[in-house]
Amino acid sequence: xxxxxxxxxxxxLIVVAIGxxxxxxxxxLIAASFGASGVTDAFFVAMSIPNIVFATISTTxxxxxxxxxxxxxxxxxxxxxxxxxxxxxxxxxxxxxFSIIGAIASPLLIESIFxxxxxxxxxxxxxxxxxxxxxxxxxxxxxxSYLQVKKVFVLPTITQLISNILVVLATIFFxxxxxxxxxxxxxxxxxxxxSIILYFFSKRYxxxxxxxAEFSKIKSYFKDDLKKISPIIFTSFVIQANLMIDRFLASxxxxxSISSLSFAFKINEFVTSIIITxxxxxxxxxxxxxxxxxxxxxxxxLTFGSIKMIxxxxxxxxxxxxxxxxxxxxVLFGYGEFNTDDINSTAACLYYYAVSIPxxxxxxxxxxxxxxxxxxxxxxxxxxxxxxxxxxxxxTLVNYLDALGIAIAFSLSSCVGCIMLLFKLYKRxxxxxxxxxLIITGKISAAAALMIVIVHSFNNLxxxxxxxxxxxxxxxxxITYFSLLILFRVHDAKMILGMVKLKNKKQKAIINx
Length: 513
Description:
Elements: H1 3-34, H2 38-75, H3 78-104, H4 106-113, H5 120-130, H6 134-149, H7 154-178, H8 181-204, H9 215-250, H10 257-292, H11 296-323, H12 325-333, H13 340-353, H14 357-372, H15 376-401, H16 403-429, H17 434-461, H18 466-487, H19 491-511
């Protein structure tokens, strides 16, 4: 993976991490105010239903729009804005329709899926309130994709940070008076402001929202996209429905079960979404561009380099999360109404969810590769197999392990789905030699395993405040891990450290004049 992509990726990781951190503060405030209770069960259920619609639309648009706009820009830059305007106008009409129907049908949706939910009326109200957020959320996602094509990566992430700050402020100041509804109102306000900011910045790069477009000029591109849209919609829906099924099963396990799984999943998602967002923003436009230019060798190099970088980051993260699962949950959520039982159940779920981290990230990158080379069928079939496996495992394990069975099933199916997609890619392009892949994975795994042994020994020997324990243990872990990687001659680790040293030298030079 080239130094330029790593540098941009690190910047995006930092910005995304800050943004996601504020989003995570919201979860902490919810946990402290309401615990893992029937109220939070209702909240997570209400959020999940509109999110299925949004994720299906946004994923479909993001996957289609980036390669199409890239293809158009290679041939005729002037048509990029015309096509973008046409698609955005159509999307606004579609999401307005879904928002109205969803809000009206909220009682039917909750009754048919989560009929045994304790706080049924609250879930209906929150669902109806949250559905209108589909409109600004879809606009924001579309404009972010547009800016990615224009090679603007950091700005959309900064607007997400602003949105998350507003949600946190709304939760802090209005949760006591409005209850959990304050979170939904804050989310709607924040995402609306984000869409407005993105619109004005997109105008600087040539975007203009017009209801009428010169359809004759963009007709052929639109027809091509229509051919791709059905399998992508189905794939995205299957993935989102998979998460809904997990919550559906958890609703039968008693009050707070949905919340424990959701809080644990949010922690896991916090890490995966940071890396996926940063990598996806950089890789997907470049995958599409290299494919359009038929630069296959560069495309293969970039893809394999990305996989190695993911393994380098994700494997030690998994072991770190498993080591500190109890401490992480206690530090993040162990306040107010979130009691010891809530901490224990959420930490246990997090322990098993953490295993899925590298598989989810690699699957995301591989999926973007297949979308960029216009092989939607590969991702579609993989998603179906993965979902069927997850449902089968969840139905089996939940009878023996309750909520933990759902978390274990999710991680196992994520692993199998990732391996299947990796084999499919290997058969297609011979991306790497299995010998090289196994060697690099073995070195990284060995370094991470030795790292966690040292960190675990430190935690057993020295009993201190949990925040300090995680901080010092984490620092020891990072130093140990990178030292072992250099000892094992892992090239990508040396590259990262070299860039950090170079950046520090530049900063010192500026300070010293």
